[in-house]
Structure prediction request, 1319 residues.
Amino acid sequence: MAPHDLRRPFKRPAISDQQRRRELTLLRQNQSRCDAQNHARFLASSVLALHSQSQSPEPIFESPIVEHELETEVDSEPETVQHRELDVRQASKLGGSGARKWFAKQLMLPEWMIDVPDRFIHDWYVFARPAGKRCFVVSSNGTTVSRLRNGSILHHFPSALPNGARTKDNSGSAQSYSILDCIFHESDQTYYVIDMVCWQGYSLYDCTAEFRFFWLNSKLAETRACDPPSHYHKYKFSSVPVYNCDETGLLSVHRGATPYVKDGLLFYNKHAHYQTGNTPLTLVWKDENCSQYVIDTDSKGQIPSQQQVVLELQDDGKLITSDDLPVVFGCLDADFIVKSGLHSGNLLRFAVSDGGLSFADGKLEQADIQYLGKSNRARAFADSFSKVIFQYMVRHSPLRFDDLLAAVSSSTAKANGPSDVEMSG
Amino acid sequence: RNYKSVIFFLWLVTNCFIFLGQYMAMEITQVLLNAQSVDGHVRKHAEESLKQFQEQNLPGFLLSLSGELASEEKPVDSRKLAGLILKNALDAKEQHRKFELVQRWLSLDSNVKNQIKTCLLQTLSSPVPDAHSTASQVIAKVAGIELPQKQWPELIGSLLSNIHQVPAHVKQATLETLGYMCEEVSPDVVDQDQVNKILTAVVQGMNASEANNDVRLAATRALYNALGFAQANFTNDMERDYIMRVVCEATLSPEVKIRQAAFECLVSISSTYYEKLAPYIQDIFNITAKAVKEDEEPVALQAIEFWSSICDEEIDILEEYGGDFTGDSDIPCFYFIRQALPALVSMLLETLLKQEEDQDQDEGAWNIAMAGGTCLGLIARTVGDDIVPLVMPFIEENITKPDWRQREAATYAFGSILEGPSPDKLTPTVNVALNFMLSALTKDPNNHVKDTTAWTLGRIFEFLHGSTVETPIITHTNCQQIITVLLQSMKDVPNVAEKACGALYFLAQGYEDVGSSSPLTPFFQEIVQSLLTVTHRDDAGESRLRTAAYETLNEVVRCSTDETASMVLQLVPVIMMELHQTLEAQKLSSDEREKQNELQGLLCGCLQVIIQKLGSSEPTKYVFMQYADQIMSLFLRVFACRSATVHEEAMLAIGALAYATGPDFAKYMQEFYKYLEMGLQNFEEYQVCAVTVGVVGDICRALEDKILPYCDGIMTQLLKDLSSYQLHRSVKPPIFSCFGDISLAIGENFEKYLMYAMPMLQSAAELSAHTSGADDEMTEYTNLLRNGILEAYSGIFQGFKNSPKTQLLMPYASHILQFLDSIYMEKDMDDVVMKTAIGVLGDLADTLGSNASSLIQQSLSSKDFLNECLSSDDHLIKESAEWAKLAISRAISV
Prediction:
């Protein structure tokens, strides 16, 4: 039987420097492998479509747009275009107007709520929309840029978002980028994050709202982006409390206090992906209790006596809304067009006259509108159908908060059924 | 006539065979004797003949060897060698060779095997000690092969029947055989009934009533190996009491070898049956104390080892449970050390005074003073603060005595107890002692004292200096003095200088995360210069002084800050020049060549550390890059120096260089590739192979798709490595990970390797999915393997992402998901595997998207496993899980 060596290490460190070199090398290699994998996971998976127009570009807007008008219009430019796919990093490198045009296409725009959707209580979230400028915030390569809906830059600043500032300890790959859908709230100089489009290079476009909100809340909390401003973090970010569309939720967002000034309520369908442009799966609703801007004002801030709508003029003289499937409100005479020096594509302002709007089977049957003139130069888009209708209803028979509550409680009653009585005494 | 001629023919044939047999028997004896001849020529010729015989007729060869061993007429030398050759035909050190030999034995004709086994058993009764002792070893080897196959069932019975034979030497040989057998076979292949009989025979042989010392010694040594078989017997109070009584009595035998063997049994029992020791510990303390005090050194060393081993056990238990014992704890801590503390400490302190002169110059030295101090150090780690007041009086009494033994013992005692007690407890004493030590290191006339003093300073810096220690031992005021003394001491005799380098190593390490400004900065130049001077000392080859100097230089560089980056940069051409000089040496003797290799290893190691340091920050990396071409050409020359094997250190350094260089590394690939391949082929030095696999990963990340032209060769080699059972198993997990690195680098170009890599991953995955019944070591390895496999899958999925060829991966998806499900069900994966596994789920979803959504939704992993990971406390697991959730959410919703 072999002799049993009982010598133990004597006056020697437990591991040799060579072993240490090996271990440190393995550590470095493991770290590099993780970095490479993370890089691969979070990169190149979020290629956004850039539709570069072959037609001549829209006029570039120099002046900020009246903010409450920003909300719900969509570019109706038909997609007669050559497609080029760019990701946001490439898009960021585009020159001024290219970038503006690209970014103008990337926001998801709610329709106006003209009736309460089905399964409201089950499938929808609600939150109080902060008043302010809707914008995209993109952080990448050590800087953060916010762009308004029309693509123009609002701020260029360092932030604590991933890769949002040139600090040493930025985690993640330098090229990875994040895109947040925000509203900049002027009085407290805060970006309220209402949606997350891309996080550290990973696209959330194809994720449900339910998931995006979960991700938004957990990821934003991991950064220091919600901290007060500092040298490397010029503006504070904040998430917005999101509720289920039940009675508690509705009451909270409608009556509850918020750190920001409210401008209506936003409703998100839980199962909807982030879809650029107009979508009926997000809705906006306002009343005087939760918004200063329920009824549209003119450029002087006055409420006109008659409702005004902006419509786009077509080649054939038809006046249409900005929807993907445009609604025709009327038609202009060819003579009148020539006489007034109008062209196809012009945005024209009309007043809704006493005849009003009449509907049949939920469709517009007749519109009594009167030409006022060309719209403000700052306008990029015609009104959407839902906006016109909402404004019309506000003036005639509004969808009131109580109607929303009623929809919720009736659906609760329905869901509970006779066998399951809830004690509320 | 026909009939007659047939008879004649048969007669002729038979005689021929008899004649041939006799000839061969005579022949083999002579050949075996010649093989031990002093005449090299004769020896070589004999070895050739043996080899030929073996190759031409293996069964005949083995038969004649066993016949030779069994024959009482043959000379002892030929019998002994016959037995040894037989033994070597059954076992080898290298795993793959061993496997071959086992298969070869099992495939032999069973008549041949039976004849050989009969000869072997017969030899056990030989009165010639060398013959029966060799036979017992060969029997154990055969048993090691056959018992696990349920063959040779009669072996143990026939051995046990020998026990009752009268001649003592038969009994002795049989007990030895049982001992060797227990060493060879695993306890689970022997029935408890037979275990009981073996133990009964062995313990009876150990009993004081056994008059023959040889028998008693053989029995005691056999018990040492049989202890692993005695699990059941140790849970039976009566049987355990009996075994323990017999072992303890044997420690009191008049025969020193029996006492030593009995203490070896106690040492083994202390780790195997720690939890059963409580009733005996008082008696054992008395026995060991007596042995340490009075017995001969080999016995005293075992007695000390018993307590060191108890310390190992208690340190493990306390580490594992953090001192918090509940009903769930597997093994409770009995605090044997704490209970015996004062007596143990005073027993050990006495041993410290029994130093040997010049023990520090002797690499292989191991004596009672060294063992005693080592045990004292382990006790300090076991009990912490409580040891300090027990040792301090000894230190204070002896440290200033004129006898160097007392000063050295006091210093050694102090150095030994620095790990374990809290810094709060030690700092006040150390603050006082530090000055004394610094002065002793310069002024004490005795080298032994200075050696221990420098070592103790190193221990002070290792355990009481660093960012985690609240009250710093080293301050602005004494830093300069400490460094001056250490640099001075580096000029002392080699063993003292080596310890001074070691102290400086830990001094530097303590400033590892000091921030942007290090207290060592003002001395940086001087330290580096002194270390380089040490490496050039003529006697730097003694006491591993040169190695220690380079290792310290490495640590000083690793822990340096931006302030001294320019000086680290200046070091680059200096070390390059040293490496260049080793390459200029011509016509070296084999001894000189070995030294050259060693030095090149140290220099490449140093360059590796420097490259990694300078490469880690952009500005220094930029300046360093001016040397990249020259360094690379030096490394290539180092490789060229060694014909067959690749220098591991050079390979590690090249990995660091590739990491720092990035895509530009492509220009070196053409020349470097052959060495890369050579490294991947190095089965024997598996560390080299493992390091090279890691470097392939570095190069993949540096070159990305530019590595493509080399991938055919690399993949071929990696696949060969995986299918080789010669290669050490520890290299296989990193090879799988490397598949992932390659795929990530070359993307969809990995397509052509899928048909080879995927089946290998799949079968490895099946093997590693279940670990039931495996021991801790096996479970750990299985987890490493799983992690490698999963990293491969991750890399492959991510590599194919966004390519038109993702469909090629669809056929593998369901197997991979099953693999994830099964390791989840197994519930024994570690955190690393958990993180990688949940990441693979995400990668699969990310790359395959909606095509895999129904598969994903069916898998357990996408529900329970994912949820478990999402709520994990481990940040990395949680992060991977969140990402997987995101990817799945996309895949499902698209």
Observations:
- Chain A touches chain B through 38 residues (CB under 8 Å).
- Residues 308-397 of chain A form a domain with the OB fold (Dihydrolipoamide Acetyltransferase, E2P) fold (CATH 2.40.50).
- Chain A has two domains: 22-68+79-285, 308-397.
